[in-house]
């Protein structure tokens, strides 16, 4: 086999791997949020978890990618250890579908156009798929068409890669050196090691199985060699997940190691049983030339029987692995644990499936917002009942929101470099817009807490009238926060449109409270110092409602594909002014300030 034929073989492998990458990305982007939906349906059901492992592997076209994702989900405490293991079992079955697709390459390409084999051969349609794929990717500016085109071009590259590999190894049919090499692999152990080595080098069991099928197309190998090489390929594919698990927690490491042991155990038990039977009752087909379909059958049979064999015992296998792993005992503060939870959700492993990474970003932004909201509730409570430990909690929550914002900003920046669907792009833009608003709610909470601390330190207290007015404003702000966070959680554009009228009522309330307080100052019922503190508190509450309005509007923008907060806010008023006015008057009536006369203050 000359140098150029070796280069041809490597080129075929490169085309194959890139085709798998392109097709997998296209399928993942086309699935979009469906991938998130599939994973959210995970329950304690072992069968469902296994089925989802198969389904996700079909979407991403890589068992390694599915298992790495499962490790990330376990590391983020989103998925349980056992759920992840059954997903892995499903992924190992799902990846065998690729071998069945590649086996179509073995159909007679040179058959007459009048025969059924000509029409079943995928290579007969590759030029058409390539043309349509290029048109969709290059000339049509539509994300869905782009993704469909990517799937087509990926399939074309895979099949052409197989064709190139087949042509490259054709000279080996008459090679004496190749015959000697084949004889050297006659020992099953040597052949298994060879399969492991090839898969570790290529980093894809589908590609190594594809190479094996290319050899099979020319009748260069028999079942005696193919079976142990396939067993070795199944072990070699675990390397990617083992490397990925190095930075994971103990449960993540357990997923990767259990999958590795599961494969080795399967090879030892099933391979041992097969060769034991063959030793006493020699199987006649072992010396027959293997076909691509035969390789697909062996690959699928091993993974299905191995899954059935280990299915009832995965709990004990995982428990054994977990006992062998060193347990880390780390004493961390609550804030550190909360930050760690947020960072685990932003796992770089998810970047290979952008649709899922976007949803993780949305959930992390919501988590950050909930910390800011909690800080606001605690800060407002300090105005009348100051406690130093509660002030410290507000300060820590505000710092936590700052840190999560920094981490999420970096993560979304990395994520933005990946191509994704229009819907996911909109959600990512929404997250990037809402980050600063969530963070600023935490800032406003700290400002209120500092004002409460100043009042406590100096022995200052608001009058009963001022507190009564402040309570109305506070309740309105709490209302808009709850509604906004529900909108963001549910991604409900219809509910988001109800937030803006309440924000305008809060603007009105803030102006009235300030005017009344100025009047109290003029009448000598309040001090200048308390006036400044009241201004800080009411301004912070009003600005909080502004941030909530902006978050709700960004939700409308993301779900309606219209970006530009001011434009959207105006449209909400203009599209149904009577409804807007009705909601405005409803909120205004619900959050009515106490009568001015009751506080000896003239109506403004």
Explain this structure:
This protein has 604 residues and is mainly α. It has 3 domains: 3-324, no CATH class; 337-460, Phosphate transport system protein phou homolog 2, domain 2 (Methane Monooxygenase Hydroxylase, Chain G, domain 1), CATH 1.20.58; 462-604, Methane Monooxygenase Hydroxylase, Chain G, domain 1, CATH 1.20.58. The protein is 78% helix and 0% strand. It has 27 helices and no strands. It has helices at residues 3-31, 33-40, 46-60, 63-75, 81-94, 97-103, 116-120, 126-139, 143-169, 176-184, 188-202, 205-217, 223-236, 238-244, 250-280, 292-310, 314-324, 334-345, 354-382, 388-415, 422-458, 464-490, 493-496, 499-522, 528-560, 565-575, 577-590. α5 packs across α15 (250-280) and α15 packs across α16. The longest helix is centred in the last third of the chain and has 37 residues, at 422-458. It is elongated and about 110 Å long. It starts with a helix and ends in a 14-residue tail after the last helix. The relative contact order is 0.08.
Nutshell version of this structure?
This protein is 78% helix and 0% strand. The protein is mainly alpha-helical and 604 residues long.
List keywords for this structure.
604 residues, mainly alpha, Methane Monooxygenase Hydroxylase, Chain G, domain 1, elongated, Na/Pi_transpt, PhoU-like_sf
Q: Number of folding domains?
A: 3
Structural class based on helices, strands and sheet pairing: mainly alpha
What fraction, in percent, of the residue positions are helical?
over 70%
Specify Rg, calculated over alpha carbons: 32 Å
Per the principal axes of the C-alpha atoms, what is the gross shape? elongated
String of helices and strands: HHHHHHHHHHHHHHHHHHHHHHHHHHH
Give the mean pLDDT: 80
Low-confidence stretches: 597-604
Strand fraction band? under 5%
In DSSP terms, counting alpha (H) and pi (I) runs of 4 or more, how many helices?
A: 27
The biggest beta sheet is recorded as: none
Subcellular location: Cell membrane
Transmembrane segments: 6-28, 49-73, 85-104, 116-140, 146-169, 181-205, 225-248, 260-281, 293-318
Membrane topology: Multi-pass membrane protein
Domain PhoU: 367-451, 476-552
């Amino acid at each position: 086999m000359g140098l150029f034929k070796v280069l041809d073989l490597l080129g075929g492998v490169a085309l194959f791997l890139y085709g798998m990458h392109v097709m997998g990305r296209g399928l993942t982007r086309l699935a979009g949020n469906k991938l998130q939906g599939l994973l959210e349906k995970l329950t304690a059901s072992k069968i469902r978890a296994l089925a989802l492992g198969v389904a996700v592997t079909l979407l991403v076209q890589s068992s390694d990618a599915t298992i790495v994702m499962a490790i990330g989900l376990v590391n983020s405490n989103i998925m349980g250890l056992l759920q992840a293991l059954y997903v892995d079992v499903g992924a190992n079955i799902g990846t065998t579908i690729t071998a069945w697709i590649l086996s179509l390459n073995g159909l007679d390409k040179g058959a007459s156009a009048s025969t059924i084999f000509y029409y079943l051969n995928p290579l007969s349609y590759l030029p058409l798929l390539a043309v349509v794929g290029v048109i969709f990717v290059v000339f049509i500016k539509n994300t869905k068409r782009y993704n469909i085109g990517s799937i087509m071009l990926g399939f074309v590259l895979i099949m052409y890669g197989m064709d190139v590999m087949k042509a490259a190894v054709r000279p080996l049919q008459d090679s004496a050196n190749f015959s000697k090499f084949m004889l050297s692999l006659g020992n099953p152990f040597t052949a298994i090691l060879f399969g492991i080595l090839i898969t570790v080098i290529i980093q894809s069991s589908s590609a190594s199985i594809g190479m094996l099928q290319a050899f099979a197309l020319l009748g260069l190998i028999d079942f005696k060699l193919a079976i142990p090489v396939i067993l070795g390929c199944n072990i070699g594919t675990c390397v990617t997940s083992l490397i990925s698990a190095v930075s994971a927690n103990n449960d993540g490491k357990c997923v990767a190691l259990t999958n590795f042991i599961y494969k080795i155990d399967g090879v030892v038990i099933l391979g041992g049983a097969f060769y034991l039977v063959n030793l006493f009752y020699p199987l006649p087909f072992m010396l027959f030339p293997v076909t691509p379909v035969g390789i697909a059958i062996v690959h699928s049979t091993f993974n299905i029987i191995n899954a059935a064999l280990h299915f009832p015992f995965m709990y004990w296998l995982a428990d054994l692995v977990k006992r062998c792993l060193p347990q880390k005992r780390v004493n961390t503060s609550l804030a550190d644990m909360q930050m760690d939870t947020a960072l685990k959700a932003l796992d770089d492993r998810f970047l290979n499936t952008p649709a899922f990474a976007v949803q993780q970003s949305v959930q992390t932004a919501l988590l950050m917002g909930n910390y800011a909201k909690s800080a606001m509730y605690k800060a407002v409570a300090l105005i009348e009942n100051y406690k130093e430990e509660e002030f410290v909690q507000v300060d820590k929550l505000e710092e936590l929101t700052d840190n999560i914002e920094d981490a999420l900003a970096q993560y979304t920046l990395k994520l933005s470099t990946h191509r994704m669907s229009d819907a996911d792009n909109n959600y990512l833009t929404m997250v990037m817009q809402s980050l600063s608003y969530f963070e600023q709610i935490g800032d406003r909470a700290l400002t209120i807490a500092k004002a409460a601390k100043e009042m406590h330190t100096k022995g200052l207290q608001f009058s009963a009238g001022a507190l009564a007015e402040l309570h109305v404003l506070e309740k309105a702000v709490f209302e808009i926060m709850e509604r906004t966070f529900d909108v963001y959680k549910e991604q409900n554009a219809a509910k988001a449109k109800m937030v803006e009228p309440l924000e305008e009522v809060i603007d009105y309330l803030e102006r009235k409270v300030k005017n009344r307080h100025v009047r109290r100052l003029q009448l000598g019922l309040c001090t200048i110092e308390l006036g400044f503190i009241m201004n800080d508190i009411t301004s912070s509450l009003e600005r909080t409602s502004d941030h909530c309005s902006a978050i709700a509007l960004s939700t409308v923008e993301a779900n309606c594909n219209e970006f530009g907060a001011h434009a959207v806010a105006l449209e909400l008023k203009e599209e149904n002014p009577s409804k807007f006015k009705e909601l405005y008057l409803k909120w205004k009536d619900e959050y009515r300030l106490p009568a001015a006369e009751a506080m000896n203050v003239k109506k403004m």
